[in-house]
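Appendix B, Record 12. Input sequence as logged:
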Amino acid sequence: MPHKLQFVLRQHTPIIHFQPEQSGATLRASELKPKLDRFILKKIGEGSLEQGKAKAKAKDWLIGKGEHLALDYK
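Logged structural output:
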């Protein structure tokens, strides 16, 4: 006797690339954060990503020991 089990799945985090016309659609932080970090570091470094990273590392603004190009927003 075969059994059948049905589920309804709903996405909890809308992806704006696929649902731009849906109200409440947002970008995921994982899509936005790396680009925002690079933008901020370039602004801090006055156009230079390396200078921005050095300044952020000196102020302890990077995640971990500064080995990643990611700002710690906490």
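Residues 29-44 form the longest helix (16 residues).
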